[in-house]
Design brief:
single chain, mainly alpha, about 70% helix
Length: about 80
């Protein structure tokens, strides 16, 4: 995680997409596994649990994306000339 926020390196711009994909897959897997009740399986309850947990999963994914974007902007190459 320290490489992600190191302003002297462009680690986040190189590997940000990979970090986001891994985080996205893990968040979706966590979302689905939280909705499964292992003592008994009822498809209706499963869908309701998925819908109840959807906002939390989306917020986690958006926060991860925000952190990666901030880290990429911090480590981006600096330009001295203003954009014309």
């Amino acid at each position: 995680m320290t490489n992600l926020f190191d302003g002297a390196r462009d680690f986040a711009s190189k590997y940000g997409k990979t970090i986001f994909i891994v985080g996205f897959v893990l968040s979706v897997a966590d979302w689905i596994l939280k909705a499964i009740n292992f003592t008994y399986f009822d498809f209706g309850d499963f869908l309701l649990d998925l819908l109840k947990a959807a906002p939390e999963a989306l917020v986690k994914i958006l926060i991860l994306r925000l952190i990666i974007e901030i880290a990429a902007k911090i480590g981006a190459p600096k330009t001295d000339t203003p954009a014309a």
